């Protein structure tokens, strides 16, 4: 790191201290100017929010006439949400201003304390300047006396006068020498104190720049969050426009402004509804289809054979009439979520009905006059999630990582590590009804943090969107394609209708490194051969830097042996598998704070002197509560909440990471962190054959 003191020792009048001191004071100015900048940005966001609110009001005042009228509500909702996004950004900017002002106050205290600590350096600078003045004066005096002495010698003055001049020259020389000594002492004192002060100034500047960068990062993240939210609002706007089809607009206009379906001259017997008893629709069945299908033939309609629809009506018990408002909302949500297939028609009693769901719509006025009715057959039972717009909807996430590592014999610092990870999100079953009944449900967004060690991401492109232009190297934002997510969850529910939640695979990622600190367990091994006898030892040590609070469980060490191996001796004892010809140690749980290291030893004898490469050790374990890559996930926005983030890692994972770096010396054994015994054996045998 560049050192300030090395560049501010010299200069005219040793002004380096003064430059560094005033530079420290400039930090307060920078903080105040940053606060002013953020305050101006907050004012801009407030103005923009107010403008969007006016735009929303303009949309709400749109003409209620015509088939286009419902679209104004889409504009109003979108504008309101945009106004809230920018209003929230303004609030974040104001919070940031408070943080900057707080930091400015802390700066004042630090600068006052530093001023008291470096006062000795200021005195040393002043002393050095004084001694420098005395030195220059003594040098000039000495030079003058020497010049005078030389002149007198050339002129041949009397000896007595010459002796006086020599005495004065000698005194001037002594004075000059004394000034040099004092200047040197002052210089040494200055260098020591200046070095100490320069280090203080450097520490202050580094801390100041780090804090300023953190404040700027908070500023950047606030803007980035808002951009993501704005993108979500625009995505919702597009979805809303797409979801409101032309047929829906025309149908809504017909329902609101229609003047009636009764033709002139028809019978008047059905004009009055007041004489009807309180009934509800319980079933709609095609009388010609015994199995419950709407059509008895493969075609969409059949002109030769008219279809008859029987409406079975039965009274509702009086005890079920209290929840009419809730039933009305549920019926609206159910009917509103149904999709009308185009160009499908049947004939019923001489009248053309374009869809069986139109029949439901034709009873709508009738049901409103009666919804003391409970629409039997429509309710699917209570949902564990409320439809309230005031509550956030819960989701959960799981991060699962698999580590494969290859250690080079006795050197635990020579290591190749590969981590592959999966991110899964879990949705409660009740949320499917919410998404189905609310096609304009808020977009679900999440952010991956601490991703600097991750090399590659492979998102589920059918379900996720992302912005490739994001600038922060430590975070990455994603948001869902909500119609695709809803369809995916519906299919999962059809396959497993009794499940209480459904897991959705979101993305995979990969990280690789040659840093041994990325492995939670450091290993080193030694193999010694003496004739037909082979001795192997393994040292293991937990790495606290990777997962400091995580226990490694189900720890196993596997050592495959030659088929002629006999006279096995192990410390601690290991189990022997005769068929697979391997030793297996099962260790107790390992953690950086408890049982963090140990040694395993084994020896055996072969019929012949081994001539192949040394054996390879394999280690297996699992852990939970943290991710080895450091990756984490959080939700963006307040409409959803993260109820749980579960983290787990294990060796292997179906992909064995192995590099055949064979040692030239047989004094070391290679070690493999792997996912399965069979994989280990096959790799070892393949390596020996190779």
From TrEMBL:
Gene3D superfamilies: Arfaptin homology (AH) domain/BAR domain. Its main location: membrane. Residues 1-249 form the F-BAR domain. Signal peptide: none annotated. The keyword Coiled coil applies. GO terms for biological process: clathrin coat assembly; clathrin-dependent endocytosis; convergent extension involved in axis elongation. It is found in: Membrane, Clathrin-coated pit. This is FCH and mu domain containing endocytic adaptor 1. It comes from Cyprinus carpio carpio.
